[in-house]
Write a structure and sequence with these properties.
Blueprint (H helix, E strand, L loop, with lengths): L1 H5 L10 H10 L25 E14 L8 E13 L5 E7 L5 E6 L9 E3 L2 E6 L6 E8 L7 E11 L2 E10 L7 E9 L5 E2 L5 E4 L3 E4 L5 E5 L10 E11 L3 H10 L10 E9 L7 E2 L5 E3 L7 E16 L19
Parallel strand pairs: 1-19
Antiparallel strand pairs: 1-2, 2-7, 3-6, 3-17, 3-18, 4-7, 5-6, 8-9, 9-15, 10-14, 10-16, 11-15, 12-15, 13-14, 16-19
C-alpha cells in the first residue's frame, strides 16, 4: 500500500520527510475510501480532522547599525506565509494575502497553488490551492526599504589595556513595536583577546542577566520577555577582563577568531523573536478565506504574526566597521 501510494506513476511522488513521517505514523486508509479528488502528490489517510486553518506571517530582519552619521544604517526584510490546513477530505482553499501599504514584492508561491489564479492588486494577492496534509510554507516575499528597525542600538567599546575593555550597550524598542518577546538576547563576541575572566567582570544592567558564553569568549545578555523600562529602553555597562589561554582552549579560540575584529573593532549581535508584530502590514484576511467543498461545520481560522532577527549587528561607534562602498563609474566617451 505504501509503495503503490508513494509511486502512483512509477516515480517518487512523496519525498518530503515530514510528510513521509506522518504517513508512517497515521497509516493509509483502505483503497475503497480514498477520495477521488486526491492529486497524486498528496497522500491521504483516515484521520479525524480538527477542522482548523492556521496562518502565520513571519518576517526576518537583517540589519546593521553603525551609530555614526558617516555610514548609513541598513535593513533588509523578507517574509514568509506559513499555513496548516486540517479539514476533512481534500479541499480547495482560497485566501487573500493583504498588504495595505503596498510594500510587499518578489512573491514566490508554493507549488500546490494553482498557477494563473493569482490576482495581484495594490492591496494584496488572491491565491487558490489544494494544501499538503502537513504544515507548509505557502509563499515568500520581500519588503521594500521603507521598513524601520524594530530595535535601535548603540554600542561603545574602549580599551583600558590589552586584557581589559569597557563597553556600553543601549537598546531602544521603536514606537509601535510589540513589547512581547519569545526570545531577546544580545551577544557580544570578543576576538583575539583570550577567555573572559568572570571573576573580574563588573556589570551594571538595567534588566535581565549577563553570563559568559559557552565559548568563554563572549557575553550573553538575556533581557527577558519584555522591556520593563517605561521609555522602552535597556542598558548594559560593563568592564571585561581577559586572561591568557593555553592548549585546547587556545586552539579553539584560534579557529574562531575574526581577523578583522582586532583592537576596538567589535559589534553586538541581537537575537530576538517579537510576537504579534511584523515590519510590514502583510497578513491573511480571515474574512476572505474559503474552503470548497465546504466542511459540515464552519472551520476555525486563526492568524498570527512574528518578527525574527537574522544577521542583526550593532557596530562599535568608536571604531571601524565593515561596510560596502558603492562603486562609482566615470563616464567614458569614444
Amino acid at each position: 500500500m505504501l509503495v503503490s501510494s508513494a509511486l502512483p506513476f512509477g516515480r517518487p511522488e512523496v519525498t518530503d520527510s515530514t510528510m513521509v513521517r506522518m504517513i508512517v505514523k497515521k497509516g493509509y486508509p483502505p483503497m475503497n475510501t480514498v477520495v477521488n479528488r486526491v492529486p497524486g502528490w498528496r497522500p491521504t489517510w483516515s484521520i479525524q480532522s480538527k477542522n482548523e486553518l492556521a496562518f502565520c506571517v513571519e518576517e526576518r530582519v537583517d540589519a546593521v547599525q553603525y551609530g555614526t552619521d558617516k555610514l548609513k544604517d541598513m535593513v533588509v526584510v523578507n517574509g514568509a506565509v506559513n499555513a496548516s490546513i486540517d479539514v476533512e477530505n481534500v479541499p480547495e482553499v482560497s485566501v487573500f494575502i493583504s498588504c495595505d501599504d503596498g510594500s510587499v514584492s518578489n512573491i514566490t508561491l508554493h507549488s500546490c497553488t494553482q498557477r494563473g489564479t493569482e490576482i495581484l492588486g495594490s492591496s494584496g494577492l488572491s491565491v487558490r490551492f489544494i494544501p499538503p496534509p502537513c504544515p507548509f510554507m505557502l509563499g515568500t516575499y520581500s519588503v521594500e526599504a521603507k521598513t524601520m528597525l524594530p530595535i535601535r542600538g548603540f554600542l561603545q567599546m574602549t580599551e583600558e589595556s590589552d586584557k581589559r575593555v569597557k563597553l556600553l550597550l543601549q537598546l531602544k524598542l521603536q514606537d509601535g513595536v510589540s513589547n512581547s518577546f519569545e526570545q531577546f538576547d544580545a551577544v557580544l563576541p570578543f576576538f583575539n583577546r583570550g577567555v573572559i575572566s568572570s571573576a573580574h567582570t563588573h556589570t551594571s544592567v538595567s534588566q535581565g542577566e549577563v553570563v559568559v558564553g559557552p565559548d568563554r569568549a563572549s557575553l550573553i545578555w538575556s533581557l527577558g520577555p519584555k522591556i520593563t523600562n517605561a521609555r522602552m529602553e535597556a542598558m548594559l555597562s560593563c568592564t571585561v577582563s581577559f586572561e591568557a589561554t593555553y592548549g585546547a582552549v587556545a586552539a579553539a579560540l584560534e579557529r574562531d577568531k575574526d581577523p578583522y575584529c582586532t583592537g576596538t573593532t567589535s559589534y553586538a549581535m541581537l537575537r530576538f523573536k517579537i510576537n504579534n508584530w511584523s515590519p510590514s502590514s502583510c497578513h491573511v484576511d480571515q474574512r476572505k478565506v474559503s474552503v470548497n467543498p465546504a466542511p459540515k461545520s464552519r472551520p476555525t481560522i486563526t492568524f498570527s504574526r512574528s518578527c525574527v532577527s537574522g544577521d542583526y549587528k550593532i557596530w562599535n561607534c568608536k571604531s571601524k566597521a565593515r561596510h560596502c562602498v558603492p562603486i562609482e563609474f566615470e563616464p567614458s566617451f569614444s
